[in-house]
Amino acid sequence: MSPASALTASHGWSRALRVAATIALIVWFGLPFLPLLLWAGADGWSYPAPLPTSWGARGLEEAAAFGAVPGAVSSLLLALCVAVIATPLGALAARALTFGSVPAPRLVGAVLLSPIALPPVVAVLGVNVVLLRAYIPPAPGVVLVLVVLALPYTTFVMRTAYNAYDRGYEDGARLLGADAVQVFLRVQLPLIAPALARAAFLAFLVAWSDYVVTVIVGGGEIVTLPLVVASAASAVGNDSAVAVMSLAAIIPPIVLLLAALSFGRRRPRSGSAPVAAPESERILA
């Protein structure tokens, strides 16, 4: 076999392995959702039938009756609020920790990461007592606690981004006459935008999937989709409704994950190689 044939065969095997690994991962992650898909469209499924014995939209009707739509709206608003607050806070903390703008950065970093190490129930119970004595309403209290829980994730993502960040671009922009606002909008923000999208996704996910904080701190005044799903799952005979609501709960995170992964990717124009403009023109244009 010639060297060229060997290289071609090796490339073919490598591509086949990648395709096989991709298919295996899709099956691995998609297989648990197959029972949910079957139950979501099942009006009846009795043992020992391998498939539902009758099909229909009973699951959608029961999910709506349980309050899935208001719960989803509440979850969406809560998750967006947490993402909007926790993402810039994490970016500011990460920049200060990376560039040494705070004393004892290791200690501060450990404090920011401490919510991950604490048991959620214990931490929330202790914080709830403080919130009650401070007369903080349930809705702001839930947002505040979830922001604290999301900060470790947003800070970690943004600190990784700032570790690869070159502040020389900011210095060059200032030398060209850019003020602080121009430096932030035209230099810093475009460079960290992909990391901001990933951090916002993690903060959104923390609030979207939360159950403990909403139950304890919310005190029943905030009814999110996880609470509705748990309420329906605690009773017997609600399998179709639980399946419908469970599938609905995974759609926003998947959509946001795909958007965050694709954010910041630039495709060169077809037929010509991308030509970078001079730095001065791109900063002050």
Q: Main sheet?
A: 2 strands, antiparallel
Cα end-to-end separation = 57 Å
Extract low-pLDDT stretches: 267-285
Mean pLDDT level: 83
| Spatial order of strands in the largest sheet | 1-2
**Share of helix, binned:** over 70%
Structural class: mainly alpha
Order of helices and strands: HHEEHHHHHHHHHHH
- Count the helices. How many? 13
- If you compute it from the alpha carbons, what radius of gyration comes out, rounded to the nearest whole angstrom? 25 Å
Query: What is the percentage of strand-forming residues?
Result: under 5%
Number of strands: 2
| Shape field | globular
Could you explain the architecture of this structure?
By secondary structure, this protein is mainly alpha-helical. Helix content is 74%, strand content 2%. The protein is built from 13 helices and 2 strands; from the N terminus they run ααββααααααααααα. A two-stranded antiparallel sheet has the order 1-2. It is globular and about 75 Å long. The model is unreliable at 267-285 (pLDDT under 50).
List keywords for this structure.
2 strands, 13 helices, mainly alpha, 285 residues
Write the layout of secondary structure elements.
Elements: H1 3-30, H2 33-40, E1 42-44, E2 54-55, H3 58-66, H4 68-98, H5 105-117, H6 120-133, H7 138-163, H8 168-175, H9 180-208, H10 212-216, H11 225-233, H12 239-262, H13 279-284
Antiparallel strand pairs: 1-2
Short description:
The protein has helices at 3-30, 33-40, 58-66, 68-98, 105-117, 120-133, 138-163, 168-175, 180-208, 212-216, 225-233, 239-262, 279-284, and strands spanning 42-44, 54-55. The chain is mostly helical. Helix 7 crosses helix 9 (180-208).
